[in-house]
């Protein structure tokens, strides 16, 4: 019965998606059981970029009270580590002592210490702009300086940032960085007047359809789709032919891209 | 006070000696929860007294059936009955498992190899027809070819498994 089912499914027509680049969401997937490592760790980044078929990673960066960028996804350290507070409220010395919960016990990674020697791979920096502990917006110039400081050993040929704060786009653009705006609607993006200063939009898979992807591409902009985890979700994202798919299940995404 | 203890030891030895004499072969089926996939397949077991040797062949159900990409896993497991009654068997286990997945058909190096070793425990019920729950934890090594480094890179991590199986004594 298993063999029969396997043969039936094998006979389905295969569509090619060579125009879509696969990016590891939060390195090797966010809350991904299929990844052996914690998201946004050096181990997860190494694991992702060495998989044949993964074109890069997206990592979440937050600015510490010392003015350095650290890789961390959640708002509170308490959620995933034994630490307390927000990244923005604590200093580097404290963050150096923090490790993720779990069997691997990976340490928190400072952007300046990141090892990413891959000229052909893309690295998206999802930049956070809000301190949820103090309920205040961060100073953008401090964040820009922190990214600039981290760049020398970071060895990225170009900086690619993702932000959901429209007020931060202009300064990033003036730095000559590639900027992707995270928004919940393709039409909203096209009508917001931000096209000139952004490279494209970053949007959930459920919030965009194929015709909207084509509309954004027709405007000369790129589309990054995220929240793509299950094989069904990966398939639906690939069929929209965006420029990038940020996936939480790396191998499943490669299998779907190269059927 | 000594008498009951001696009687208990004699009884245990008698049960153990009887058990050691019995050689049973079993065939069965299993469902294994593993972080990478839900593996399902068949197993064969040789039970000699308190010692069990089991081999199993299974496939990752999600990858194999929903993504049409065969994801086989082979395992060997040794188990030792600390308690072996008609209605309950329990003890420690050691398991080795190997699996491979060709995740990228376009690349000649798009294959992943996973080797895992687990220590754990099991609890089962039934004699001729037996249901068993097993679980374990241990180190895992995943090997993937890296084009950037032009060599295999190894990812070493911890993994777990939990298995529900049914077997029948031949």
Structural class label of chain A: alpha/beta
Number of helices of chain A: 9
Low-confidence stretches of chain A: none
CATH top level assignment of chain A: Alpha Beta
- Indicate the structural class of chain B: alpha+beta
What helical percentage do the residues of chain A reach?
A: 25-40%
CATH superfamily of chain A: Phosphatidylinositol (PI) phosphodiesterase
- Spatial arrangement of strands, main beta sheet of chain A: 1-2-5-8-9-10-11-12
CATH-defined architecture of chain B: Beta Barrel
Summarize the topology.
The complex is a heterodimer of chains A (259) and B (170).
Chain A: H1 2-10, E1 21-24, H2 42-49, E2 56-63, E3 69-71, H3 92-95, E4 109-110, E5 122-127, E6 130-131, E7 136-137, H4 140-154, E8 160-163, H5 169-174, E9 178-182, H6 186-191, E10 200-204, H7 210-218, E11 222-228, H8 231-239, E12 244-247, H9 250-257
Parallel strand pairs in A: 1-2, 1-12, 2-5, 5-8, 8-9, 9-10, 10-11, 11-12
Antiparallel strand pairs in A: 2-3, 3-4, 6-7
Helix pairs in contact in A: 8-9
Chain B: H1 2-21, E1 23-34, E2 37-48, E3 51-60, H2 61-66, E4 72-80, E5 83-84, E6 89-102, E7 111-125, E8 129-146, E9 151-169
Antiparallel strand pairs in B: 1-2, 1-9, 2-3, 3-4, 4-6, 5-6, 6-7, 7-8, 8-9
Task: Give a nutshell description of this structure.
The complex is a heterodimer of chains A (259) and B (170). By secondary structure, chain A is an alpha/beta fold.
How would you explain this protein's 3D organization?
The complex is a heterodimer of chains A (about 260) and B (about 170). Chain A is of the alpha/beta class and about 260 residues long. Chain A has a single domain (about 15-255), classed as TIM Barrel (Alpha-Beta Barrel). Chain A is about 30% helix and about 20% strand. Chain A is built from nine helices and twelve strands. The model of chain A has no long low-confidence stretch (mean pLDDT about 90). Chain B is an alpha+beta fold. Chain B is built from two helices and nine strands; from the N terminus they run H-E-E-E-H-E-E-E-E-E-E. Chain B has helices spanning about 1-20, 60-65; strands spanning about 25-35, 35-50, 50-60, 70-80, 85, 90-100, 110-125, 130-145, 150-170.
